[in-house]
Write a structure and sequence with these properties.
By secondary structure, the protein is of the alpha+beta class. It is 21% helix and 29% strand.
Length: 127
């Protein structure tokens, strides 16, 4: 099966040996995004809500580079350093979707890259 790599300068460049997303058949598997500003490579300030907003902008950019949008997302995984941030992140996340929400898992983790407090990865359908 053919695998297409998806990359865009409108989302942060990978900081390790991975790609922003890969398309396999009818599905797009996006690597987790944190709240890095693609222009500066630095984590945005303003707290976890601002980070979550930047994360979703980064996710949108990767999806757009593949020719799809948030309406194509079927599954997300949210990683939080502190579950006390759940409500704030959930508010930002929920405001990004209209209509049917994707399936979702939220997991507490000990730490995230670049000192981030939230990371989100998505799987989308290509049609």
């Amino acid at each position: 099966m053919l695998v297409d790599r998806i990359e865009t300068g409108h989302a942060p460049r990978p900081i390790g040996p991975y790609t922003q997303a890969v398309r396999v058949g009818d599905f797009l598997f996006c690597s987790g995004q944190v709240g890095l500003d693609p222009a500066t490579g630095k984590l945005v300030g303003g707290g976890v809500g601002a980070e979550a907003g930047r994360v979703m902008e980064n996710v949108r950019a990767v999806l757009s580079a593949a020719g799809v949008g948030l309406e194509h997302v079927v599954k997300t995984t949210i990683y939080l350093v502190d579950m006390a941030d759940f409500a704030e992140v959930n508010g930002v996340y929920g405001g990004c979707f209209t209509g049917d929400y994707p399936a979702r898992t939220t997991v507490a983790v000990a730490a995230l890259p670049a000192g981030a407090r939230v990371e989100i990865e998505v799987i989308a359908r290509m049609s």
